[in-house]
Design a protein that fits this description.
Elements (H helix, E strand, L loop, with lengths): L1 H13 L4 H36 L1 H16 L6 H6 L4 H15 L4 H12 L3 H12 L7 H23 L1
């Protein structure tokens, strides 16, 4: 990282660029972007915190467990599957709990790891990127992204089962 930073400074000097002015303009642009996405991001964080604290994820996991077990999807991964599209930090905390409980080399641990790497924090990404450009209507983005996440989750379990 220091080599890259020194390289950027040297390149700017070589090109005779006003380095501090360019830095200040970029910082200002970053703050404007932050200001535009802050309400959406705050709303997402508050909503996720409320859902998690209320026990919503646990309740839905409990409801879905029989269906998932019937389909061959481990019930232990349902909470991770529900949390992953909503929050990255919450899902990685859940992944850590799964790995501590079942072990990294267990089927559940491997499937959870592949699932976490194969899916996206869909709602966070849509909030940040759509908020940054001021889009209000997501149209087909959310359904397509949630379908992609579900596909990634199912294929993660199937792939680990096939390769184990």
């Amino acid at each position: 990282m220091p080599v890259i930073m020194v390289g950027i400074v040297l390149f700017g000097i070589w090109r005779k660029t006003a380095l501090f002015d360019s830095f200040a303009a970029g910082a200002k642009e970053g703050l404007v972007s932050l200001w535009s996405i802050a309400p959406s991001l705050i709303g997402l964080v508050v909503g996720v915190t409320m859902l998690e604290a209320s026990g919503f994820f646990s309740l839905v996991s409990e409801w879905l467990s029989p269906i998932c077990q019937w389909c061959g999807f481990p019930a232990e991964l349902v909470p991770l599957g529900l949390m992953r599209p909503v929050t990255g930090s919450g899902s990685f905390a859940m992944l850590n709990t799964i790995l501590e409980q079942y072990g990294a080399d267990s089927f559940i641990g491997k499937a959870a790891s592949v699932m976490a790497g194969s899916t996206e924090t869909t709602f966070y990404a849509v909030t940040v990127y759509y908020g940054a450009v001021g889009l209000k209507k997501t149209r087909y983005t959310i359904p397509a992204a949630v379908l992609a996440d579900m596909t990634g989750m199912l294929l993660a379990v199937g792939t680990v089962r096939w390769l184990s």
